[in-house]
Design goal:
single chain, nine-stranded mixed beta sheet, five-stranded antiparallel beta sheet, disordered C terminus
Length: 348
């Protein structure tokens, strides 16, 4: 287990200097496995060996919605104490929350996460956030036998994003712990926390639902969209639309029904002002224009050898002045390929 840090760390966001976005790189002969999955790279993430994983293989399949697990159970949300929400099979109810103040635990009564900044208000009225939550215990049963804990915290001052390394302690007597999120190629497992939302695991739709805390792993589409700048806290367009567009874009979810059409090792460019994304090579072929409900048009599939989308889509080239004419909403994203569509599945 990676030792927990006792103070928050600041890392420089370098997304704007490397606008080429790489989709998950898999175990194919000519695929560069050292690239960080589906995100622009920090320099310290290049050239690192892949870690061993406790489940599945690296990387997760292209288009994976989330990579959070409690043991062998998929996790999407934590339901704080006292929140009267109907549990889904991917929800975990928190029975009690303890925050360490000094060496003594204090009972947490209220949870919030403004702009992804996880905060806990305790019984005495004081609050804890950031690195102060390291070591907190989010008990998952009435008998206090296992819990979720914040093992590390990272704040990027350039992007304003807060990340958490969450672990599941499956036996409080032995302290056995596993990361909740599948790790990046750096070996680190990070998640963003998004409050008051529900993401349908079948169709990928995002809807407000007060009280629930979404665990958005950086190795799944929910977290990658945030890393790419498609923030759930954006002020452009209707609430959550920019984030949902980012999720559809990451997954190549052309039909907007949760079916991804992407594969490992696929290069992608994105244009969206709100996400601070621009094309790296603007002369490349258009893939599609995405919105929160899927693709508004598609010229070329991201991965040509996969089955064609099952829904009818107009070619962006057939629209007058397209694709710019389709960008009628600040939440829409225009994507281009880094090369013309591949016909050989062995190439990235």
């Amino acid at each position: 287990m990676i030792p927990a840090q006792t103070t928050p760390r600041r890392r420089t966001n370098q997304r704007s200097t490397i606008p080429l976005l790489l989709l998950l790189c898999g175990s194919v002969p000519s695929c560069d496995d050292d690239w960080d999955p589906e995100t622009a790279l920090d320099d310290d993430q290049i050239g690192l060996d892949q870690p061993g994983l406790r489940k599945g293989t690296w990387p997760p399949p292209g288009g994976t919605l989330n990579t959070a697990w409690l043991g062998n159970t998929q996790l999407m949300r934590l339901l704080p104490p006292g929140i009267a929400l109907q549990e889904n099979e991917t929800d975990a109810r928190v029975w009690a929350l303890e925050v360490l103040t000094g060496s003594q635990p204090s009972l947490g009564l209220q949870i919030s996460a403004p702009l992804g900044d996880l905060q806990v208000t305790m019984a005495g009225g004081q609050s804890a956030a950031g690195a102060d939550l390291i070591g907190s215990r989010w008990w998952l049963d009435a008998n206090h036998t296992h819990y979720v804990t914040v093992a590390d915290y990272d704040y990027d001052g350039d992007s304003g994003r807060h990340r958490y390394r969450l672990e599941h302690v499956s036996n409080q007597l032995t302290g056995d712990a596993e990361p909740i999120c599948l790790p990046e190629t750096s070996g680190q497992s990070w998640a963003y926390t998004v409050m008051d939302v529900r993401v349908d695991v079948d169709n990928g739709s995002v809807t407000p639902e007060p009280g629930a805390l979404m665990v958005a792993c950086t190795t799944g589409a929910l977290g990658k969209a945030i890393t790419w700048g498609f923030s759930p806290w954006a002020t452009v367009g209707p609430s959550l639309d920019l984030w949902e567009t980012g999720i559809r874009t990451v997954r190549a979810d052309y039909c907007g029904d949760g079916v991804p059409y992407t594969n490992t090792g696929t290069a992608l460019q994105i244009f969206n002002d709100a996400a601070d994304q621009d094309f790296w090579a603007s002369n490349r072929k258009t893939e599609a224009v995405f919105g929160p409900d899927g693709a508004l048009c598609m010229t070329a599939p991201r991965v040509q050898y996969l089955a064609a989308p099952h829904c009818p889509l107009t070619s962006c080239d057939d629209l007058g002045g397209a694709p710019p004419s389709v960008l009628t909403d600040p939440t829409y994203a225009w994507t281009k390929l880094m090369t013309f569509p591949h016909t050989n599945p062995m190439l990235p």
